[in-house]
Amino acid sequence: xxxxxxxxxxxxxxxxxxxRNCWFTYKAKGTEGxxxxxxxxxxxxxxxxxxxxxxxxxxxxxxxxxxVTTINTVWVWQMIYYRRGNYAKT
Length: 90
Description:
Blueprint: H1 3-28, H2 36-56, H3 59-84
Helix pairs in contact: 1-3, 2-3
């Protein structure tokens, strides 16, 4: 197992967990108890990784990083949307 494969595995697991966060945020229509600052930080780190992984020759990590960064960005936008309150709770 290469370091790229191991790192990509962590990234894919992170993507799954973040997708669950998005799902639960959608279901709750709220973000109580969630820090938007930490989510913005980790989304920013994801964008850095999209630059960094190709320079390290870590193709699998890059692919997984695209998924993590995309989902994390969606989650940040969800938090902004739900905190504004411009939606109808069902």
